[in-house]
Amino acid sequence: MANTNQLPYFQINNTKETNIIARFLLKKIKKLLKEEYPYHYLIFARQDKRLKYIQELSKKYKYFLRIDIEKYYPSINHKILLNNLLTLERSIFKHLNFQTRRMRHYLKYEIPEFLEKCPLKGKGLPIGNYLSWILAGLYLLPLDLKIPRPFLRIQDDYLIFCKNKKEPEKILKEIIEPELEKLKLKININKLNSGKFHQNSVEFMGFKYYAGIFTISEIEGFKDKIIKITHLTKKKSYKAVIKLLNNKILGFGHYYKFASCKQDFEKLDSFIRQRLRRYISRHKDSKNKLENLILTNKILKSMGLKSLEEIYNKYALKKKVISKKNKKKSPKIGKLTRENSLLTSHLISDEYWRKDVLEQLQEIAKNVKQIKNKVAKIEKKLENLKPTK
């Protein structure tokens, strides 16, 4: 992950104004993206559906091309970005009405003002800002529109599905490289990859896809974060450390629970507990409060520590329940005896008869109640109409 506090990466906080502009731009582009690219990352966020999409397409398109752009956010050229936005109506989206008064105002004043805040002269977008996220998505749309095969894109990461062995190289040289040159961007050579699904592994969105199975590809990065939180130089209480650990556990667990990750989650849980025990046993304040308490898994759980394995098991159980509901009952093999079949048929008919009678009684009771209410209203009206003596 890029260091957002060090150039060429930088941060600009979200504001109400930038969020309004971002939502406006997304609303303008949403209709076309839904038609052309329903799985585009700007409008689609379901991780499990993306993984299923990869599994399904890999059966039809046997080959892949995986590209990543080198230092994407810091490399975005402001002049090209504004020019792309200004010419969207005539060059890219002819059927969209971009030339509204509000759009012209944003392009003339608001967006250039936002870009001027960037510390790099004439280029770069901040990380973590909603408007920059939308602008970064729009910057590569000319390339998106020229890719002839289905693809998935997450910001500057592309996974392109290809029909044959020669297509990845052809798409790269004839379409991607010329288009990136126009946008003044470069491919990250270290992450450039192509091959055949089910024979070569491919890493995308933090997952490793090989032989039809997804596994976690960024375990070491997660471990580094856990080590940083539980470092002995930290002066936080064990409760504060557990809270920080839980934030990482929940984020990581819910992101990767769709993969084949049960064993990885068990090992990571063990690693987290080991680091926490070490922190508590050597931290003076924690040691005084907990005294000689044996820190078993059960004790750590009672202290509030979350578990990756629990996240996975809950998801697996939910998935199993859903699949059971959708699954049709297969007919039993073999013949039932006549007596058994008659018995079951009688039981079924009796059950339906009871249900039918109960429903009819409930309907009658409902009608009787309604009639009583109507009679009561009529009687009340008649009493009001009686002449007073």
Task: Give a structural overview.
The protein is α+β, with helices and mostly antiparallel strands. It has 16 helices and seven strands. It has a four-stranded antiparallel β-sheet, with helices on both faces. Helix 4 runs antiparallel to helix 6 (101-116). The protein is extended, with a radius of gyration of 31 Å. 22% of the residues are buried.
Features:
single chain, 7 strands, 389 residues, four-stranded antiparallel β-sheet, alpha+beta
| Main sheet specs | 4 strands, antiparallel
Shape: extended
Note poorly predicted spans: 91-97, 335-339, 341-347
- Nearest-integer average pLDDT: 84
* SSE string: HHEHHHHHHEEHEEEEHHHHHHH
User: What is the total tally of β strands?
Assistant: 7
- State the end-to-end distance: 92 Å
Report the helical percentage.
55-70%
Overall radius of gyration: 31 Å
Strand content: 5-15%
Class from helix and strand fractions: alpha+beta
**How many helices?**
16
**Spatial order of strands in the largest sheet:** 2-3-1-4
Briefly, what is this?
With 389 residues, this protein is an alpha+beta fold. Helix content is 60%, strand content 8%.
Describe how the helices and strands are arranged.
Blueprint: H1 16-36, H2 47-60, E1 63-68, H3 72-75, H4 78-86, H5 88-92, H6 101-116, H7 130-139, H8 141-146, E2 151-154, E3 157-162, H9 167-182, E4 193-196, E5 202-204, E6 207-210, E7 213-216, H10 219-229, H11 238-256, H12 262-282, H13 284-290, H14 297-302, H15 308-326, H16 338-385
Antiparallel strand pairs: 1-3, 1-4, 2-3, 5-6, 6-7
Helix pairs in contact: 1-7, 4-6, 10-11, 10-12, 11-12, 11-15, 12-15
